[in-house]
């Protein structure tokens, strides 16, 4: 089965693409995109991988679902296309960066600039139907993205995993914490952040401190 994904990832994940669950997933996604408006655009479904080749992964951030509003999702978790207003969770992410790193709010919520530096912005589910949050859950994407996390954990060392909220923490349960650096906090959504579970986590400076200790370039957040 031909899957258009960055070659370095295709080499690592090729066995997944041949499994029955993935073939069923492809059939489901193709049908959904043919009969409903879905996000992100078809050529951006694997954008997180295309912007961040396997060999260059330094940081992994785990999200849940793509944004389901028109023009928002671009295949990277928490990220929106240029010119799109920042969703509440992204606003809180930028607020924390501003406090933690003294970096002012950016003009765009497009996080491709992070991905191009080695930050894998991985949603657990890579597609969604317009205006229907969670509509593509439990169709096989979670199995695939579990395999992605497992492959990174097994084949790499000293990756920083940022697990925000209960869902991401559960998703990251299989990470080998003897080999990797795992930081956990509440979700940046207003529901969690306003209860004091997000702000002050300093994940962005902590990530850079660890990367520098490992002799790697810090991320320009």
TrEMBL record:
<dbReference type="InterPro" id="IPR005122">
    <property type="entry name" value="Uracil-DNA_glycosylase-like"/>
</dbReference>
<comment type="function">
    <text>Excises uracil residues from the DNA which can arise as a result of misincorporation of dUMP residues by DNA polymerase or due to deamination of cytosine.</text>
</comment>
<feature type="domain" description="Uracil-DNA glycosylase-like">
    <location>
        <begin position="50"/>
        <end position="211"/>
    </location>
</feature>
<comment type="similarity">
    <text>Belongs to the uracil-DNA glycosylase (UDG) superfamily. UNG family.</text>
</comment>
<protein>
    <recommendedName>
        <fullName>Uracil-DNA glycosylase</fullName>
        <ecNumber>3.2.2.27</ecNumber>
    </recommendedName>
</protein>
<dbReference type="InterPro" id="IPR018085">
    <property type="entry name" value="Ura-DNA_Glyclase_AS"/>
</dbReference>
<dbReference type="InterPro" id="IPR036895">
    <property type="entry name" value="Uracil-DNA_glycosylase-like_sf"/>
</dbReference>
<keyword id="KW-0234">DNA repair</keyword>
<keyword id="KW-0963">Cytoplasm</keyword>
<dbReference type="InterPro" id="IPR002043">
    <property type="entry name" value="UDG_fam1"/>
</dbReference>
<keyword id="KW-0326">Glycosidase</keyword>
<feature type="active site" description="Proton acceptor">
    <location>
        <position position="65"/>
    </location>
</feature>
<dbReference type="Pfam" id="PF03167">
    <property type="entry name" value="UDG"/>
</dbReference>
<keyword id="KW-0378">Hydrolase</keyword>
<dbReference type="GO" id="GO:0004844">
    <property type="term" value="F:uracil DNA N-glycosylase activity"/>
</dbReference>
<keyword id="KW-0227">DNA damage</keyword>
